[in-house]
């Protein structure tokens, strides 16, 4: 993986029979936290928390990261809390979020992928109150063959406002279990 354009990268490999982080770097606005202990002592899994400074994404943030999990290794990559997208004054940029996750899996590997979004801060009247949300999740075999290609696109406009089209739904989730 080329690290020059990435905000961060983590590599997990088997070392002495245990899953271990062998490479980790991150730069603003991304940070990785890797606790020494997460879960029962017999669990061979590296937990990686991905977070941004200030707890969210601000207008203009571009984040690109890579995660490599070696043969026989187990890793959990998650966020410390829900990621917030903060509004910026006088700009529509913060009312749109584009997210793309690409996974490459080798035969025999497993993947649990959960991608979800909530409608916003209900108490503040922010229910599906953004212009555009686009989340793409692609899973490929190591030879480049596509296994799973999915995009969720929510945008204002059309026949009715987004909040009206979503009715009483407050969460959308996509879950993929592989292996």
Automatic annotation (TrEMBL):
The protein's name: Urease accessory protein D
Pfam families, A to Z: UreD
Superkingdom per UniProt: Eukaryota
UniProt organism field: Punica granatum (Pomegranate)
Molecular-function annotations in GO: nickel cation binding
Annotated keywords: Chaperone
Homology family: Belongs to the UreD family.
Cross-referenced InterPro entries: UreD
């Amino acid at each position: 993986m080329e690290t020059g354009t990435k905000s961060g990268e983590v590599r997990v490999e088997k070392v002495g029979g245990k899953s271990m982080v062998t490479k980790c770097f991150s730069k603003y606005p991304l940070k990785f936290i890797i606790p020494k202990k997460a879960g029962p002592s017999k669990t061979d899994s590296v937990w990686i928390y991905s977070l941004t400074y200030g707890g969210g994404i601000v207008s203009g943030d571009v984040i690109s990261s890579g995660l490599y999990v070696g043969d026989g290794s187990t890793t959990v990559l998650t966020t410390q809390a829900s990621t917030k997208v903060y509004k910026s004054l006088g700009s529509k940029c913060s009312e749109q979020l584009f997210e793309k996750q690409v996974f490459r899996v080798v035969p025999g590997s497993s993947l649990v992928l959960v991608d979800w979004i909530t409608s916003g801060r209900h108490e503040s009247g922010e229910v599906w109150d953004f212009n555009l949300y686009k989340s793409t999740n692609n899973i490929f075999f190591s030879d480049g063959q596509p296994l799973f290609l999915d995009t969720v696109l929510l945008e204002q406009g059309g026949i009715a406002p987004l909040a009206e089209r979503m009715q009483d739904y407050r969460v959308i989730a996509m879950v993929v279990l592989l292996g």
